[in-house]
Specification:
This protein is 81% helix and 0% strand. It has one domain. With 48 residues, it is mostly helical.
Length: 48
Amino acid sequence: MDVISFLTFCIEFYSKHIQKPGNEVYLMFRDSGLMDMLETDYEDLHGL
């Protein structure tokens, strides 16, 4: 799985969990800095 697929998975999984659209979750992740953290720490989080 590449970084983009991982980020998409995280957004879609969480959007289903909180029952909000993916675009809203993306904005929440981006505004909180979580998108940067997920991308920076991809290898640690994904277990490569």
